[in-house]
Amino acid sequence: MSDTTNESQTFSAESYFATQSQPPSLAADIQGVHEFIQRQRQANRCVVLVTSGGTTVPLELNVVRFLDNFSAGTRGATSAEYFLKAGYAVIFMHRQFSLQPFSRHYSHTTNPFLNFLEVDASLPSSSTIDSAYPYSHDPAPMAPTPQITVTLAERARLLSVLRAYKAVHEQETLHMLSFVTVNEYLWLLRAVSREMSVLGRKAMYYLAAAVSDFFLPQQRLSEHKIQSGKGSLSIEMDQVPKILKPLVSEWNPEGFIVSFKLETDETLLVPKAQQALERYGHQVVIGNDLHHRKYRVVLISPAAQEDAAKQSNGVLPKYDKFWIEINPNQPSSHPKEIEEDIINELIKRHKTWIESA
Amino acid sequence: MSDTTNESQTFSAESYFATQSQPPSLAADIQGVHEFIQRQRQANRCVVLVTSGGTTVPLELNVVRFLDNFSAGTRGATSAEYFLKAGYAVIFMHRQFSLQPFSRHYSHTTNPFLNFLEVDASLPSSSTIDSAYPYSHDPAPMAPTPQITVTLAERARLLSVLRAYKAVHEQETLHMLSFVTVNEYLWLLRAVSREMSVLGRKAMYYLAAAVSDFFLPQQRLSEHKIQSGKGSLSIEMDQVPKILKPLVSEWNPEGFIVSFKLETDETLLVPKAQQALERYGHQVVIGNDLHHRKYRVVLISPAAQEDAAKQSNGVLPKYDKFWIEINPNQPSSHPKEIEEDIINELIKRHKTWIESA
């Protein structure tokens, strides 16, 4: 797949959008976002864009093989619920088939919903009805379908999920958008950000999706399935442009922007997060390490002037570190979720950001 | 990641298993399979191994990025249901989080189950109970949790899914096994096949998983997340060994083996399927093309002697082609699924295979 006449190049955000095709569904998707944002403005709500799940990089035009980033979408789906609970309107921009708010509690693998449904025996089943009318020549009356109910053990938990789900649907404060490829992700992010700019400081970005750092420009994609049997496979990929840069400086300079850094080497966490903040100049980087991310994260943000002045040694810290930690041993019935504390802290900071306008 | 001192090589099945580590959960998984097969033998049932979903190829030891093959697992999950309906016991060896029999009807994305649950208003809710006891100084009696029921519109369909699901659980004819990486898939396939060999001709293999053709040997994996910022990414991958060869010739020579060929170029379908049959000498290759796979497939098998003799032109066909096709325009309420016809045809052939022993 590598081609000497078509070598790898470096893409800026500008050259990326100038050379890579816009997804066909973009216009319709953005129309929906536009209307959603209008309604939230009228209701005077803050709006947060939550991105969630991994992106794929197709290696073939007819996608069979692709490069993927690991993410079930737990962070994004869980966080979206806490934003909704706090009164935010949420645009949930997620990888297709990744976890979603509310339904995430009932994964087909770990907690399949069919397990706690039962056929209600107190209502006559169709066969009982049929045998009750054996001598009639009239057609048997339509047998009522037996009711299906939820087992007592699961009822209380499901009820609280279901009520929150139905309330959100009634208030229309959750808007779903999905992507698969990194190209769809980038085009959507740009268009949604531009739409959100009318919200000024009331717009928050919570960029939890695991976005690929590398991609294969469509100009170098193989049309059909790469045939095996020709020995080893060699892939040369280009860097995905750093999209936070235009997001912060052009698409929505007033937005409160939270990005994520995932590392597998915990010693890289803080320096990498500080580097990102330095490079893009946004509000918060949440650093998390693959193995402890469910109970420990660090929020890195530019140091407040007053805090800096308090430092007695005269060396002004450039960045604040704020660790959020919960007990890793949570009861399985009512586990505390770290996202609850993360969202509470962010909402507090977002409020300050809005007031300091 | 490419390394001149550690160049790509060609793996046979033998050298693969000699150099790539066995997954830690293998022994426990196989113990479960062993007991399942014992029970099915006592019940004199045929057992089919259904593999389903895509495999991943990790690019890092701490998996963040990986190469993936496209597959939601629809073919495997749907087929497993029809095998169960026909009285087969099913070992469902699937990619973690891919679709599963029965719950597949209620995808969180296309048909979320929370949409058809409702809180039953005929039972008093807890708040009504609380206000009914405002003057009592005794603690209010435990408020009963309201019942949750299924909407009338969805009830009939869910009832048939739920009854089939519960029947299968009662009869214990479905055994679940999951994998993520291509390495886990290969080790499981070998071990399960060896366990199934005690079933002789009553064992069927329905290998619908989308298995990667390429992998990165663990000896060349990067320990931590590959850092971007160093320009483009270059990956050199080796070929996955052709696992059908030892499956047919060593692990279970008596098994009835059905493999799949997926192509994006329909003209390659029949020649590729014939080539596979010629190379491995098993019973059936199902050829399907990415865009029409939901309503058209072709079964390629060695030509029967009697059919061959009937040919008047004297040239004996080496392979039979058997197309299965359904109308692509199916009603959304009760769509006909092509897997029903595929499984019926295979079960007929499996019966002949058993009788011809």
UniProtKB/TrEMBL annotation, chains A, B:
Q: Which InterPro entries match?
A: CoaB-like_sf, DNA/pantothenate-metab_flavo_C
Molecular function (GO) terms for this protein are: catalytic activity
Q: Which Pfam families match?
A: DFP
According to the entry, every stretch annotated as the DNA/pantothenate metabolism flavoprotein C-terminal domain falls at: 188-293
What highest taxon heads this organism's lineage?
Eukaryota
- Kindly state a single biological-process term from the GO annotations of this entry: coenzyme A biosynthetic process
**What family, per the record?**
Belongs to the PPC synthetase family.
Q: What is this protein called?
A: DFP-domain-containing protein
State the organism of origin.
Answer: Rhizopogon vinicolor AM-OR11-026
Q: Taxonomic classification, please?
A: Eukaryota, Fungi, Dikarya, Basidiomycota, Agaricomycotina
